[in-house]
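Posting for a labmate who doesn't have an account.
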Amino acid sequence: MATVVKTVENTNESSLRSRKKIINTPYTVQDVAQHNTKDDLWIIINNKVYDVTKWIAYHPGGELPILNLAGHDVTDAFRGFHPDWAYNKLTTFQVGILVDYQPNQIVKDYRAIDDRLRREGYYQTHYSFYFKLYIWLSFLFGLAMYLTIYSTEVKWQLVGAAVLGMFWQQLAFIGHDTGHISISHNREIDGWIGSTVGNFFGGVSLAWWKRTHNVHHVVPNSVQYDPDIQHLPIFAVSEKVIPNGVFSNYHQKQMNFDSFAKFMVSHQHILYYPVMAVARFNLYLQSVLLLFSSVRVQCKKAEIVSVFLFWCWYTYVLSYLPSTSAIIAYVLISHVIAGIVHVQICLSHFPMEIYDGVPYNSDDECYCITQLKTTLNIDCPEWMDWFHGGLQFQVEHHLFPRLPRHNLRVARKMIKELCKKHNLPYYEYGFFDANRLLLVTLKKAAEVAKKTKGIQFSFKNSIIGDLLYARG
């Protein structure tokens, strides 16, 4: 018996020595960069090297955020999107240490701000804030239903449609908060809030939104990688996609700049607001396509049921309208008002720097600087914070994704000081100035599109083909 115990102890000791040798294997940034495929994927976190190839399929945030950052230092992205306990999961995957890199002073100061926000309790949610939002949203929804169901005049029912649109615009911010797990800070709880309450009242799948949004955050404004700026054939945020189009890493398809795209893009600065007014219909379609696909999503059954129930109550409400024309007017008004949130989302990124590929290849492209270059804030008084729902602090939100929105104004002051200290860009405009800047950006690309010659229609990769074949 003693011999068996001794053998086991020797085996364990040998295994520990072998493991210690592996995790202390030295690697350079260039060494890690070679491991950048789905079948061989390494990342760097806090100067430690991890082989997460076997974890990709199980990542709660989906495969694409990891795949997009394969072979890179993801320290700040990991820190921004994961709770502290997630670091304990990393030990199993460590294969070495980084020996040729230390963060610059900008990165150190940025991380110091994050440490300060955590230390001073700004990552804690004030539930009184969300209780007030609950009262506000309940009031909007209740008023919309009362005006629609109990009014005998169409004009008041249409006022109800406008109130419903405002309810959807405000509800979107709750979905955004739950998607970033910044309410309860518990993935399961926030996931269920978004997938049931949000989907039921809004009709747009939280799972669909999270799948695109997680990718957007790690590669904001990348021509090839960020789905939030890949809108051909309707919009071209940059002339970089003219005339050759772009292969979307997210959609895994070529998005062509064909004759239909040329027409739309050439007039996009004129068509922008009309398109935003009806953009919600596309979100309904994208939600259904995802939920009935083979893609793994959190709370899939709850998502499907809640989206189905949304269409049940919404069509029931529409049955109170006295005529087809009244129904059409009701649907359009509610969606036009709700479309304000689409304008607010686009303001944060469309006018900003656009780049090719994946960033984070040098100190000039570190996580902090990349977010600052590709994001802008909306300067508004504090009493208007309710209208923007946290999107007015898009810079701070991108730097600290899980920070509760009611504390973003505090982070804004700290980030402004950081930018002043290091002479970094900090973009902040009033709401109307930001809209003007966005339209200037769209018009610039439109002028390039107008001058493009020899463009033909491509049915295979057109939006018409996507609709006919129900492609996302």
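Reply:
Got it, the structure tokens are right above this. The two ends are 64 Å apart (CA to CA).
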